[in-house]
């Protein structure tokens, strides 16, 4: 799922991110034409999908358990905020998923389903449905392979890839619209109180961290299988991408959380201002071709991306990335430093002030992961980008060919002598 972007943050090349929204449909057609007859579903594919389903269920259950714990303790404000952190992102991602499904139906690239299946998809389990469909297609392809039915194996493999491609964008949105805000909320509650951390809070935070890491790993794994060209990202490249976005996201979460523990209302206004600024930037200068039938659709999708941009940058469309990365990450770096300075100057929690460990840790936490994430980004573009590997192969091929010609010339000289 890599479109064309910029190599080493300078020249045009393939990039990662939400180019899935640009190339997801032609990527499937290209894949089925050029995958050199390899339509094998591995056991790892099935296990990965099962773990994705289970991790999603566990994450939701942990958040619901925390909300119930708040309700039992008569902390109704925390209960309402926690439930909003579950329901609002679910509505957004479900709407996006339904929109993608209807677009596929219009283009006749989706197997038509019965009315009861559609109602289940839209109302009951809109996000699980895509996972379950992918799992069903993977199992059917595996069964067809065991029967040596090549046509059925290929058909269900293509369905699985298409389902994974569609869910990839929804997966990353779910990660950044639910798990990240939920983590900010719980960290803010913990840092602003004096009661310490309870087990439901700890489990919910750990669940959110694992959910963010797994969503990003799943997203970039899906990118590996649905690229419109044959320059696949290596596992080292995928790992560097995951570390890049995960570290930046964690740094943003920690930076927002420490300030929100002191000034929750002003922090909310600052996040809204950041989101609105990003929305206008995307809508006027970096508009995505996905969800762009009308100006309203395009603005609403830009608004969703604007919220996502609070935490990390996902390319809205194909194009040069150097200046976009430079502007965005410079802004985020300044914001993180400002958050640390504000917290250091205005923190009044006696437990944190009187500790030699907590205050330095909380001041370093938003900066360290951010710097590490930017370092991973630079390493990716300098060493692991698909075009870098392609050029190295070409150079290796030319060198091998030159050595071969030299050896042949030497042999001919010896023979003539």
**Overall morphology:** globular
Largest sheet: 2 strands, antiparallel
Please provide the count of β strands: 2
- Give the helix level as a range of percent: over 70%
How far is it from the N-terminal to the C-terminal residue, by CA?
56 Å
Number of discrete helical segments? 15
Average pLDDT taken over every residue:
77
Q: Can you list the strand order of the major beta sheet?
A: 1-2
Provide the structure class: mainly alpha
**Portion in strands:** under 5%
Sequence stretches where pLDDT stays below 50 over 5 or more residues: 1-37, 411-417
Output the helix-strand order: EEHHHHHHHHHHHHHHH
Based on CA atoms alone, the radius of gyration comes out at 24 Å
What can you tell me about this protein's structure?
The protein has 417 residues and is mainly alpha-helical. It is built from 15 helices and 2 strands. A two-stranded antiparallel sheet has the order 1-2. The longest helix is centred in the middle third of the chain and has 43 residues, at 150-192. The protein starts with a strand and ends with a helix. Residues 1-37 and 411-417 have low confidence and may be disordered. The chain crosses the membrane at residues 46-66, 78-102, 114-131, 202-222, 242-260, 266-284, 296-315, 327-346, 358-381. It is found in: Cell membrane; Membrane. Belongs to the XK family.
What key phrases describe this protein's structure?
disordered N terminus; globular; 1% strand; 15 helices; two-stranded antiparallel sheet; mainly alpha; 417 residues
